[in-house]
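Deliverable D2.4 — example input (structure tokens):
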């Protein structure tokens, strides 16, 4: 593993507490790979067992219904671990991982990761943390689908995206991520038409604005009031 990759690992939050020896073990057993926007890392129902660490770029995790409708679970960013959902049983991947912004990944075959965990059990904590994060996310999405209308789900999504990808500018908090209305609809379990209407309503109400295809949140307080909208 080249030295720049090793240094990059040290800079990532997920590996900041590891000792040099532990980082070296990961470097020896892993390999880096670049992906272009639109490339699929693995498909739903693939059976390849590998652990993936996103060094930079953005990746979306999604699933398809029997009718071919996409539901996006989440968008991953630098430092996120994925692929762990299929590591502990014989089932294939339940999700598809697709690159939405040019990405560099560190990939560790599961057999090699098992050897690392046997020597350094503390490494398993990182995988457990990744599993817990997705469990909390799934729980949150189920709660939103059950208790919130489309406006509430959109407000919740924008709040999460602002937390994960937000950057402060003079006009408010810009979500440093370009998403189409269809992609937003896939994230909140709604239709593109509904999302377009809601975004226009949020703009008219002064909660958000859009510049260079990026959403800027201007009024978090009013956005938060939408989260209280329930059936």
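Example output (designed residues):
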């Amino acid at each position: 593993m080249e030295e720049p990759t090793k240094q990059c690992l040290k800079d990532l939050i997920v590996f900041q507490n590891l000792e040099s020896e532990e980082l070296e073990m990961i470097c020896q057993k892993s390999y880096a790979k670049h992906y272009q926007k639109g490339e699929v890392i693995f498909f739903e129902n693939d059976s390849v067992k590998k652990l993936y660490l996103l060094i930079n770029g953005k990746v979306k995790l999604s699933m398809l219904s029997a009718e071919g409708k996409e539901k996006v679970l989440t968008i991953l960013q630098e430092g996120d671990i994925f692929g762990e959902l299929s590591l502990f049983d014989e089932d294939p991947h339940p999700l598809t991982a697709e690159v939405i912004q040019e990405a560099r990944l560190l990939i560790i075959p599961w057999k090699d990761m098992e050897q690392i965990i046997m020597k350094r059990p503390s490494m398993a904590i990182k995988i457990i943390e990744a599993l817990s994060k997705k469990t909390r996310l799934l729980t949150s999405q189920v709660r939103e689908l059950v208790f919130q209308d489309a406006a509430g789900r959109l407000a919740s999504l924008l709040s999460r995206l602002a937390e994960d990808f937000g950057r402060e500018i003079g006009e408010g908090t810009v979500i440093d991520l370009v998403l189409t209305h269809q992609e937003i609809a896939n994230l909140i379990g709604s239709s593109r038409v509904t999302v377009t209407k809601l975004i226009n309503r949020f703009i008219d109400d002064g909660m958000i604005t859009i510049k260079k295809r990026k959403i800027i949140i201007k009024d978090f307080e009013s956005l938060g009031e939408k989260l209280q909208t329930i059936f």
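The first strand starts at residue 31 and ends at 35.
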